[in-house]
Design a protein that fits this description.
The protein has 504 residues and is α/β, with parallel strands linked by helices. Helices cover 51% and strands 13% of the residues. The protein contains 18 helices and 14 strands. It has a six-stranded mixed sheet with strand order 10-11-12-7-13-14, sandwiched between helices. A four-stranded mixed sheet has the order 4-9-5-6. The chain has a two-stranded antiparallel ribbon with strand order 1-2. One of its GO terms (molecular function) is ATP binding.
Length: 504
């Protein structure tokens, strides 16, 4: 049996950098915000589930985290303990004085053991646990009973007990510092602390454990440690043996679970912040067929920006019926067309990751590849013009796309004439429909939206005031002249106004 992963199947080699479509869809900004405090989790956003079963496995775990607050709290505590373990081990690696290195390594091992125990307890207390919790819990049960883990726990307890038994005195007289064994001498440190306690405003006594322990010793501290090591040679030899015996100790499944849990919780925290402002999220119904039916979905990158500015977020519906494959979106500039196209791509990527997606209800199929073709400014480093870049890009997409692929096109072929844009765009759309590719195409060419079989026309609302925007995009025939008519009315150039002026 393969070691369990909270992703259903372990992510072996996530891409080192973002896929090409991340920037086009604004996913780079979403992932950047989610992982700002934990960049190590970013590669998991590039690892969609390989099957419907794996995606549903992730969804069940997400649902448990959203519904079982005790489970989420326990897993956050586990993550914090693992973070302190990594910090202790990092300290052990960079310190030069061996006894100090060994002590930090022991501290890291004890924190790891505490993390495993805490994780096991959190999973054991989960109500209605999903498969991911059950699988990891079974692994932890076997791990804690293994000879290696038992030896680590026993040796750590023994070494810690020896260290706890170390008691010594430090006598300081001017520049003379002497270290000796403790024989019951008065603790002048406690007496000094008692004197100053009377001056504490809050009345709370300060405890030794309240003082943070920092790695690295100054010259005097290092000299004291050297003398203490000489006073207790057996203890520090045992400490060194512990590190040698258990170098690199730690279960890789636990380390992977830590990363995966941090990934889930970071995204769910992002979701919770948006939900608190009224942006809806749901776990989509994932099916085997290449379908899409999403209600009230939004462009997450834009939604996050709007929420930060205190502005309202508008959701839209996206649907591809059984015989529909391409959504062609037309309408005035800045009316929400590109945001809708990004939302189309985003919900496919997030659903494939097994994560909640923006919307009130979503049914969606997974994809084998996600392609984007967005209009880009010309670059001095690229000798091709925009039209050639669009043609080459679409040829590559049409060569690779299958009936389970997703394509997002934004103003493709916009750099050529209206006639050529209509001809090229229509040819591409027909190829995509024939192949069964799910696609959204934002274009200024109304004729493409009227191609018929397999093509659905959507248009951005055109309100009476030409400068106003509702950001609603609905199914319907193109309204190419509607925006022009609104502008004409605004400037008194519509037919009715002109007739009145001529008559007068």
């Amino acid at each position: 049996m393969d070691p369990p992963s909270l992703l259903g199947t372990p992510v072996a080699d996530a891409p080192a950098g973002d896929p090409d479509h991340f920037a086009d869809l604004g996913l780079d900004r979403v992932v950047g915000e989610v992982t700002a405090h934990d960049p190590e989790t970013a590669p998991l956003f590039r690892a969609p589930a390989p099957s419907v079963a794996a995606a549903r496995y992730r969804q069940e775990f997400c649902r448990a985290l959203r519904q079982d607050t005790d489970l989420a709290t326990g897993l956050r505590r586990f993550g914090a303990t693992m973070a302190s373990m990594r910090e202790a081990r990092a300290n052990a690696e960079r310190l030069r004085l061996r006894p100090e290195r060994d002590a930090w390594y022991l501290d890291g091992a004890r924190r790891y053991l505490a993390a495993v125990a805490g994780l096991r307890a959190a999973l054991a207390d989960a109500t209605d646990p999903p498969a991911a919790v059950r699988d990891l819990r079974a692994h932890l049960d076997a791990l804690t009973e293994s000879p290696e883990h038992r030896a680590l726990a026993d040796d750590a307890a023994e070494a810690a007990a020896l260290m706890d038994a170390v008691e010594y005195t430090v006598r300081i007289k001017k520049s003379d510092v002497r270290v000796g064994r403790y024989h019951g001498e008065p603790d002048y440190g406690a007496e000094v602390a008692a004197v100053f306690d009377r001056f504490r405003v809050d009345g709370a006594a300060r405890r030794a454990e309240d003082v943070p322990v920092r790695p690295g010793l100054d010259g005097v501290e290092a000299a004291i440690l050297t003398d203490v090591t000489a006073l207790f040679p057996d203890t520090f030899r045992a400490l060194a043996r512990f590190r040698e015996r258990h170098a690199g100790a730690g279960d890789p499944v636990v380390a992977r679970a830590d990363l995966e849990i941090r990934w889930y919780l970071a995204y769910l925290d992002f979701v919770a912040r948006l939900e608190a402002t009224g942006v809806p999220f749901t776990l989509p119904v994932i099916v085997d067929e290449p379908v899409l039916d999403a209600h009230g979905t939004v462009d997450l990158a834009m939604a996050s920006e709007l929420v930060h500015r205190g502005e309202h977020v508008v959701g839209n519906d996206l649907r591809l019926g059984a015989d529909e494959r391409v959504l062609v979106v037309t309408g005035p500039n800045h009316g929400g067309k590109t945001a809708l196209a990004r939302a189309f791509g985003q919900i496919h990527q997030l659903a494939a990751l097994g994560l909640p997606v923006p919307g009130t209800a979503v049914e969606i199929g997974l994809f084998d590849a996600l392609f984007t073709q967005f209009e880009r400014p010309e670059s001095v480093d690229d000798r091709r013009g925009r039209l050639e870049a669009d043609i080459v890009g679409m040829r590559e997409i049409l060569t690779a796309a299958t009936g389970h692929s997703v394509v997002v096109m934004n103003e493709t072929f916009a750099s050529t004439s209206l006639e050529d844009g209509a001809r090229l765009g229509s040819a591409v759309v027909r190829r995509l429909v024939d192949r069964g590719v799910r696609c959204v195409y934002v274009t200024f060419v109304d004729e493409i939206a009227l191609l018929g079989d397999g093509v659905v026309s959507m248009t951005a609302d055109v309100p009476g005031a030409p400068s106003a925007r509702t950001f609603r995009v609905r199914r319907g025939r193109p309204q190419g002249l509607a925006h022009a008519a609104a502008l004409a009315r605004r400037h008194g150039l519509d037919a009715e106004t002109l007739r009145r002026r001529i008559a007068s």
